[in-house]
Amino acid sequence: MKQYVLVVDDEKGFTFFLKKNLEAAGDYDVTICNEADKALERARQLRPNVILLDLMMPEISGEQIATALQEYPETKNIPVIFLTALVKSEETSEAAHMIGGHRFAAKPVKIDELVALLKQVTGSR
Amino acid sequence: MTLYRKLSLWFLGFALLAAAIGAAWLLQARTVQRQLNRFANTTTPTLVALGQVKSAALDLVTRVLDDTPLELATFQEFQTRHDEWMNVYAGTATSLEEEQLVKDIETAGTVLYARVRGLTGQPPLPAGSAEAARQLTPLLRAKQQFVHQVDRALSAEVTALKQEREAVNRSVTQVVQLSLAAVAALGLLAVGCGLLIARTIALPVVRLARDAAVVGSGRLDHRTAVRGRDEIGELAEAFNRMTENLERTTVLKRYVDNIISSMVDALVVAHPDGIIQLVNRAALQLLGYAEGELLGQPIAVLFEGQAPVPSLLPAWWDHVRTGGAVTNEERAYRTKTGQAIPVLFSSSAMRDEEGQVQGLVCVALDITRLKEAERALKAAYEDLKKAQQQLVQSEKLAALGRFSAGVAHEVKNPLGVILGGVEFLRLKFPEQDDDLKMTLGAIEESVIRADTIVRDLLKFARPSALQREALKAQELVEGTLSLMTHSGSLKNVTVVRQFTPEAPAVLADRNQVQQVLLNLMMNALDAMNKTGQLTVSTSPVIEIDRVPMCLIKVTDTGEGIAQENLAKLFEPFFTTKRDKKGTGLGLSVSKTIVESHGGRLTIESEQGKGTTVIVALPAQTGGRAG
């Protein structure tokens, strides 16, 4: 079953390779959103199976977006995986690999690790 | 008037009075003597002469009347006798009255002797004859007349004698009276003198003696009330002045003694030859001596150590004697028990009015507490410096961490792109030749390596908020060992555990300390190429810098660390394992973590034999973890 993935990250090179590699690695349909302020709108339109959210973006942080997603019934239950270049200890419970109640993957992330994480998330649904 | 003059005058008066009395007495005695002389020289011869004249006449008349005729010669004998005595009598006449009497006797005598002359050479007249009666009657009448005249003279003389006797009697009475009066007067005078002397000399002297006794008994405020303008007055005044001086000096001495004994500073006064003459209470208390043990001793006994003072003594002495003073020098006194006491020492020469050196005054202030405080201050300063160094070090690391955090974000994103690119190329070119495979592999490896470095760097950026709990050191070690066993790292290693049951609990963040131990054990394994003996041990409580600690030691049998590298071990990015993907951050991160616990991380190593890393963690005081 095809999984729809929305990637929100301002790093275009990263999203480009992520889409290519992920779609090659499995049955994924990846939509790229490079503008954080449009992420919510895109999520509500697309209603993907999973959203990959960069934590640190210029306009809005990934956490803010994740909070906003909670407010809409159509996006409320979509699982979120944070992508982060920086892991702040006060935000994480490292043992559980969670940030603010969501899973995270530290950049640079290997595609097979990410696939394993996606499988966990979607499988748990 | 001075007492001397007063007394002299009294005695002079006494003598004058006595002399006057004596003179009066002598005068009176002279009068008596004169009267007696006159009696002897005048009255007696008069009476004798009158008696002779009378007896001559009576004898002559009797001769005439006897039976024998009167010879002329016989008559002439009587005549001569009469004339001689009449001359004597006439010679005693001194008054007109007496001269009249002499004339009357001479007249009667002339009549009588003329009658008798007429009868010489005649025969005796018959008794009772008319012739006899005619011739004898005038004779008898003449005789009667003559006797009458003589008796008048005698009577007058007797009257005079009576008067003279009365006069002598009066004079003698006067002399006796005068004598009695003189004795009485002199007696009174003597009594008066005695009283005066008693009043003016003896009484004040007695009172002065009493006052002296009172002052002598210690009542120095007592003064004599004896006053006067004489020597006694002067004596009393001098006595009062003396007492006043005594009081002042005594009071001053007591005052000064009180000051000396109340001084906080230890005071020692030495004779110019260096012998101790005076010590105050503070000095005795400071040094633990009794007064008698110090007096007479050389001043050198006060000082700690033979070297500084005796050798300094002559120079010091010359310095002080030539007017210099020693002020607030740090020296050490030595107590009776030999303990050294740091003091702030001052000394100066004590001089008399002529400037002669009388002694050496030494004052010492016990600065033990000051010294202790100084030492404590120094220790605190050292601690502070160390803390500051640590702070600087940790600040440096923190700054590095903050910097790393900034860098990490900027680096990790590109790393993510690169890694994504490598993976995309692998997808894109499934058929790779060796060169391409090698290239992609090298790029991927470098990305991972860069990522590891950034991740380690980020550990510095982590806040040092520790989740501390009381943990048994042994437990921490075992936890780390089990992690390593799971990862299979200990396959070819002999692990030796030396845990002591006396090991105290430590206050530690379990995760962080286990990370440190893991890091140290991995280092140990790397040092012996994963083959050898790994010894882990714990210690009982040991004090490091006054803090009770527990030591955890990790010892390997590896190659050891070169001496020149030991000092650099904790520098960030220093590594000897560059080829084995070491980042050079492990030990610095470990040290930071241990020190954030208030602990110490030290390394001992002997090249060729192995290395021991010692983690000291603060022990939980007052209990042990179960």
Report on this structure.
The complex is a heterodimer of chains A (125) and B (626). With 125 residues, chain A is α/β, with parallel strands linked by helices. Chain A has one domain: Response regulator (Rossmann fold), CATH 3.40.50.2300. Chain A is 38% helix and 25% strand. Chain A has 5 helices and 7 strands; from the N terminus they run βαβαβααββββα. Chain A has helices at 12-25, 39-46, 62-69, 73-76, 111-123, and strands spanning 3-8, 28-33, 50-54, 80-84, 92-93, 98-99, 102-106. The longest helix of chain A is centred in the first third of the chain and has 14 residues, at 12-25. The relative contact order of chain A is 0.18. In chain B, a hairpin with a 2-residue loop joins β10 and β11. In chain B, the strands form 3 sheets. In chain B, strands 7, 9, 10, 11, 12 and 13 form a 6-stranded mixed beta sheet that branches. A 5-stranded antiparallel beta sheet of chain B has the order 2-1-5-4-3. The model of chain B is unreliable at 306-311 (pLDDT under 50). Chain B folds into 4 domains: 3-191, A middle domain of Talin 1 (Up-down Bundle), CATH 1.20.1420; 263-366, Beta-Lactamase (2-Layer Sandwich), CATH 3.30.450; 368-463, Helix Hairpins; 467-626, Histidine kinase-like ATPase, C-terminal domain (Heat Shock Protein 90, 2-Layer Sandwich). Chain B has helices at 3-65, 72-92, 96-119, 130-216, 231-262, 281-287, 291-294, 308-321, 368-428, 434-461, 473-486, 510-527, 563-566, 586-596, and strands at 266-270, 276-279, 326-334, 340-351, 357-366, 468-472, 493-498, 505-509, 532-538, 542-544, 547-555, 600-606, 610-618. The A-B interface holds A 11, 13-14, 16-18, 20-21, 24, 56, 83, 85-87, 89-90, 106-111 and B 405, 408-413, 415-421, 423-424, 427, 447, 451, 458, 462-463.
